[in-house]
Amino acid sequence: MDNTQKTGKSTKRLATARELQQIVAEFYLEGHEAKRTGKPVGWMPPMNGLIEIFYAMDLQPSFPENWSPVCAAFGLIHKNYMTAESMGFSPDLCGYLRNCVGYINGLMGEEGVPLNGLPEPDMIFIPGAGCVPAMKNFQYIARRFPNARVFKADLPQVPIENIQRYHIDYALSEIHRIVDFLTETTGRKLDMDRLAEVVRLSDQSCALWDEITSYRRCIPTPISAAEVGLMFVLVTRQGTKQAVDYLTKVRDEVKQRAEQKTGIIADEKVRLFWDNIPLWYNLGLFNYFEKYGGVVVAETYSAAWSIRLDTSNPLEALAMKSLQSYPMVSCVSMQRRKDMVLRAVRDYHIDGVILHSNKSCLPITLGQMDIKRALEKELGVPSVVIEADHMDPANFSMSQFEDRAGAFMEMLLQRKGRS
Amino acid sequence: MSRTAIDLSPFSDAIANRSERFIRRVKKQKVFGWFCTYTPIELIHATRFLPVRIYGGMTTVEKAGTLVPNFVCPYMRTSLERAMRGEYKYLSGVIQGYTCDISCGMMNIWAENSGLKTFHTVPLPYNTNDSARDFYRKTLNELIDKLNAAGGKFEMASLSRSLDLYADIRNKLLRLHELRRQNIFNPQARDFYTIMEAGFCMPPEEYMEHLTKLVGEVEKLKSNPVSGIPVLVSGSIVEQMWIFDLLEAAGGRLVADDLCNGRRFCDPADGQGKDPLDRLIDRYMHRFPCPARSIVDDRVPRVKQLVEESGARGVIFLFQKFCTPHLADYPALSAALRDDGIAVLPIEMDESGNIEGQLKTRFGAFFEMING
Fold first, then answer.
1. Which of A156, A225, B119, B215 would disulfide-bridge A299, Cβ 3.0–4.6 Å?
2. Where residue B100 sits, what CATH number does that domain have?
3. Residue A98 in contact with partner chain B when CB distance is under 8 A
4. Which H helix or E strand runs over B300?
5. Exposed (0-12), middle (13-18) or buried (19+): which is A88, by Cβ within 10 Å?
6. Minimum distance, in Å, between the CA of residue A58 and any CA atom of chain B
7. Structural domains of chain A sorted by starting position, each given as residue range(s) with its CATH number in brackets
8. A312-371 tens-digit pLDDT
9. Which domain holds residue B105?
10. Chain B nearest-CA residue for A89
């Protein structure tokens, strides 16, 4: 198998994107520093409000799921998959799960792992919502670190449009249970004023992100999906001043580019939308369309990380966030997701949609054919299905991609009279 | 050729004629479909509707293939195919307990494409503490409202009667499992699971009548040991009965299972509580766990216990291809079994059924290895 053709970094146009490498390195360094100084480290899934509680209690969050794209970028995934496979994990399972169990049972602790890898957990949070692979991932993490304290979380999984008071109450009761667990385990208490400040910062980050994405309405767009790495701060730094400061800088740059009509490429001919998770081992794919004058203006992935919070009621705001983020981009709330894609296509003046049929993520892939039909029927916007995998290059063929994407771009150019 | 002299035709007929029976049935009672054994069917029954399990089986997937990718499990693909062909027109809707990602997503695909009216997913809690129980109760109350809105009439007293009926059914089924384990009731595995499956597509009152008669006859049997290497099968749903035939032809004897069309449907038979809703909640919270609803380390000892009690010398994992919950539990579960000296064999079933030759070889080698 020739992996070289399947991997590639994206070409970034934002000057602020260059700072990202440092931000990523600092986050992992902070984790190891926490371990060294005795600050408790908790491994958790993202997207659920836990991160704000951690920062408010001055605890160190760590995200094994987010470590997987880092492994993809550093070329560690093949070795991790080999370890997972030797343990009996099927190659049909999600790449995040296989990469993570492979890493913790293989490379973890070895010399020379980029960023020194993940710091060992003192606490592990097994989710009771989100996708099954994420739940199983944390179950295996708990097996690997028997000395860590384990919290088994629970959360109602309901479509956003069906959320009722009793769902919020149960999510709230789980947040209280988590706070009690953290207090008992670490001896630290949650200061509600500090939590209010963290929630305010978290909301501010989301507001900034929303503002950044609003500039995508501009023609030419000042920012493309090739900058999706920016999401790292929304995944790992929600509720911190670092996130707000960094996103403010990004916003300023994007705003300036918009005002100066500086596009991603010289002649933006076709505007595209990417549905589903990016190919972490080949973010350069977002640049592929540029030779046709195409720019991937927007994507589904970032929507789940930007949820505005009611800062007047911090705990309930986190409960609401935990209820919304996964259903927003998955098959739990298919109507909502379809509406989101259609709205983005209208708002960002999209000419064509790329539907990534993702072998590693069925919950996001299910429903794409209904989205495809709605795009055609309601908006007259064509789409193309690309079969790939967000984590495993073995499930992606560059030549097949080129055939399909190339034909799609030719068709879009012809429709716009720009061929 | 059946291995038992007992007449099993009421069960096999119910399966063979399920569509015709339901089409006739809907003239006097609404029928709701369900996928997963975490669906509170007692509650559907208590609102005077008939709950029936949606059947997938083996069939060519064409229409469903235009709606979902090929890495969806065969059960979900073939059942959607049947829905798209109009084979489930008799259903008033689908009620489902939230279990795996796919059943949740497929509900939405059905809602969009099947033409049926009512769809509802019950968001089940994972924990069993007081707040989880309270939450569970509220989810069931919401389901009751939905069923009432669909023309049902719920009463606590009727739920109590439904719970009694399904507890009786489950106790009879557990008794059959026990008599199989004791090598007293020795039908071919395909017959055993035909009895189980009939319960998914028959009104429970009628099923109970046939089960009562059957168990009565089986209880009179004298020990009539059948030879073969005792094995347990583990997986989600197995609709391809011919796989059991191959297993037995290769020298195996199925003594226990961890299947959702087997033991997981009936263990435990009942729950306890201060009122019927609590009793229902208690039963579902403490039922034999499916990997989609449990932590692998909580499930491993339960399966190991089944293996030990049944005397199985091997465990055959019959996976629906792409079934994440079962595939994900396999590494921990298989390692724990191997540590106990139990041989394991993983098999993936697809919708084509083109694995007969491969299975013959693998089953043969597996039993030869166990025999040493």
1. A225
2. 3.40.50.11890
3. no
4. helix B296-310
5. middle
6. 28
7. 11-192 (3.40.50.11890)
8. 999 999 999 999 988 888 889 888 899 999 999 999 999 999 999 999 999 999 999 999
9. 14-155
10. B331
